[in-house]
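Final report, closing paragraph on structural work. Over the funding period we assembled a curated collection of sequence-structure pairs, and we close with a single example.
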Amino acid sequence: MKNITFNHLIYIAWALLTPLLISCSSPVNETEDEEHAEGNKVELTQAQYDLADIQLGKIEQRTIGSELRVSGIIDVPPQSNVSINLPYGGFVKYTEMLPGTRVKKGQFLVSVENPQFIQFQQEYLEGLANREYLKADFERQSSLYDEKVASGKSFQQAKSAYLSNEARIKSMEARLKLIGFDLRKVQAGEISSSVSIYSPENGSVREVFTNVGKYVGPQDAIMNITNSEDLHVELSVFEDDIPLVAKGQRIRFSLANNLNTWREAQVFLVGSGVREDRTVTVHGHLKEESADLLPGMYVSARIETGSHAVWAAPDEAIVRFGGRHFVFTFLEKKMENGQPHYAYEMIEVNKGISEDGFSEVSLADPTLDLSAIDLVTQGAFTLLAKGKNSEEDGHGHGH
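Its predicted structure, as stored:
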C-alpha cells in the first residue's frame, strides 16, 4: 500500500465536503428570502375579512404644505383685556364675580365705598345751590355797570364769583362721572357713600384681585375682563425662520391637552423686533371661535410656508412597527379548500410631512410602483396585528 501524506488527506476531505457545502448553501439562502417574503404577507378567511371591514384605495398625489413648527399661546389684543379700577379708591362693599364668570356690557360687577364720596356730592349740590344767586348777582351788577351806576370793581367781583362757581360745578360733574355716579340721582338729592361699577363690554372675568372689605387704591386693578371674541394665537418664531413667514399664511394649531385636534388661524401680523430669546412674535387670527379657548393657553402650531404636490396616503393606512412605517397592499383573492382567502402584503414606506389626515410617503423599495398599489385605507392595524400574531405562533402568514 502506498503511503498517504497529510496533504493528501486534506485534499480528499475538501473534495468530499465541497459538493455537500454547495448543495446546502443555496437552498438555505432561498429559504430565508422566502420566509422574509412570507413574513410580510397576511391572509384572511372570509369570516375574518368580513369582520375586519377592509377598505381599498390608491396612493394619490396631493398638495401638502411645507410647515414651520413653532409654539405659542392664546392671547387677546390690549384693547380686549380691560382692567377694572376706581380712580379715587375705596373699600370693596360687594361683588359676586369669580374668574371665568361671563358678563355682558353694562352688567353689575362690584360696589366700592368711600366716605369721601359724600363730600364730593355735597360740594356739587352746594355749587348748584349757589348758581342761581351768583348768576342773578352777576347779571344785576352787569346792568348797573352798563348804566354807570355801579363801579367796575363790583361788576368784576360778581363776574368772577359766578364764573368760578360754574367752573367748580363742571369740575365736580366730571369727577362724579369719573367715579361712576349718576348726576341725575345726585341732583335729586340721592347721596351715597358707595358707587357701583358695571362691565364696559362683553366678555368673561379673567382674574379677580380683591375681596369684600379690602381697600383698593386708584392704581389697583379690582379685576380683569377679557373679550374672548378677539382671541388670537401669538407664536414665537426664531429669527432665522422669519423670512419664511408672511401675512396671510395658514396656521394649524392644537392645545397642549388635546394634540390630536387641529384648529386653523391665519397670519395677520409679523413682529418687527427680536426679543432676548432670539424670537419674533407672529400673530394669527382664528378662523372660528371656540368656547374652550382661553387666554394664556399653550399651543403647538405649524405655519404653512409653502406647498407642493406629493404622493400621499391616509394616516389611517400607515402603521408603525419596529421603528419603521408600513402600508398594506391587496395581492389577490384565491380559493383554498373551496373557501375564499384574501392575501395582503406589508410594504415599508418612508413617511414625510403630514396635513389634514394625509402624509407624504415614498417606497423603501424604489423598484415598486406607488400608483399601482391597491392600498388598504381601512383595516391596516387589524392586518398588522393578525400578521404579527401569526409570526409569534410560528407561522409565516395567517390563515
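The radius of gyration is 42 Å. The chain has a mean pLDDT of 85. We thank the funder for supporting this effort.
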